[in-house]
């Protein structure tokens, strides 16, 4: 164990994930889907009106996870929409310092983006020097599967055309079996990840699930599949340049991300 690694193990690790994008895309719902935070307040179940509140400031949700004496502090940061009003982008930029401080002090950080607009392109080009960007296709239930594929392809093309550096999932080991390699390939081709957020619990096929209840049926919430999340975690290690790979460290991080996807 290197000296720096020993120190990190003692101190624990910080993992910060922030969401950004236009207002109304479903960012807060997605964050709340991860934390189950917004269903109740003071023990009372909230009504739809109370739950749908526009995010007006940067909000943090933090959770401490401890595994074999190693602490992981996971912080998810929700942000208000940008680019919706005049000077809104400037407002965002004004908080740039706050963001970059956090970026630099974190041992790992991700940025999730639902959908892509010219403003997003501009913002992402600013951002990609600081953070790992993970593009997300929000409200996937509002598109048919062929539409999801088409939209994903377009976003990938735009990311390429505008020279935006998004987070690259590292190649898997050559000695992995064919099945794993195929899944890995599928994972890479599935960027931007499609998600369905929900802040209600509904009954579907005898199970209580996070889902969206419509007059015509239920759409189950959908986040990242565990194997995807695992590959994203692995990559996190690339950022921790001085920290050696340590199995149990990787495991607890993987577990934390996995529990977010349940
Ligand atoms: P934000 O402004 O990006 O934080 O968006 P919100 O999370 O406040 O969501 C805006 C609206 O979109 C709310 O009415 C949500 O119920 C709805 N919404 C959020 N996620 C989804 C989703 O995955 N699918 C659908 N159909 N609607 C969603
Ligand atoms: Mg919001």
Automatic annotation (TrEMBL):
Protein's UniProt keywords contain Nucleotide-binding: yes
Example GO molecular function: GTP binding
Keywords attached to this entry: Cytoplasm, GTP-binding, Nucleotide-binding
Septin-type G domain residues: 11-259
Cellular location(s): Cytoplasm
Pfam families named in the record: Septin (PF00735)
Keyword Cell membrane: no
Protein's UniProt name: Septin-type G domain-containing protein
Species of provenance: Aotus nancymaae (Ma's night monkey)
């Amino acid at each position: 164990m290197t000296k720096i690694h020993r120190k990190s193990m003692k101190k624990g690790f910080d993992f910060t994930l922030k969401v950004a994008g236009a207002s109304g895309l479903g960012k807060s719902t997605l964050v709340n889907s991860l934390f189950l935070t917004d269903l109740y307040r003071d023990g009372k179940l909230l009504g739809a009106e109370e739950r749908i509140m526009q995010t007006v400031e940067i909000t943090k949700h933090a959770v401490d996870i401890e595994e074999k004496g190693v602490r992981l502090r996971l912080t998810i940061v929700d942000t208000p929409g940008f680019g919706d009003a005049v000077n809104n982008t400037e407002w965002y930029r004004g908080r740039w310092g706050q963001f970059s401080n956090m970026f630099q002090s974190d041992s790992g950080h991700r940025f999730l983006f639902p959908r892509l607009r010219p403003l997003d392109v501009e913002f992402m080009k600013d951002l990609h020097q600081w953070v790992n960007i993970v593009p997300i296709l929000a409200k996937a239930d509002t598109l048919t599967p062929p539409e999801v594929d088409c939209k994903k392809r377009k976003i990938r093309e735009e990311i390429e055309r505008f020279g935006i550096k998004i987070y690259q999932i590292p190649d898997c080991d050559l000695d992995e079996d064919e099945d794993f390699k195929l899944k890995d390939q599928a994972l890479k081709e599935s960027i931007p990840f499609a998600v369905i957020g929900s802040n209600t619990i509904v009954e579907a096929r005898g199970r209580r699930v996070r889902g969206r209840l419509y007059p015509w049926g239920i759409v189950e919430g959908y986040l990242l599949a565990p194997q995807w999340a695992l590959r994203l975690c692995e990559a996190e290690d690339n950022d921790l340049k001085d920290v050696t790979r340590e199995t149990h460290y990787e495991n607890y991080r993987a577990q934390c991300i996995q529990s977010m996807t349940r």
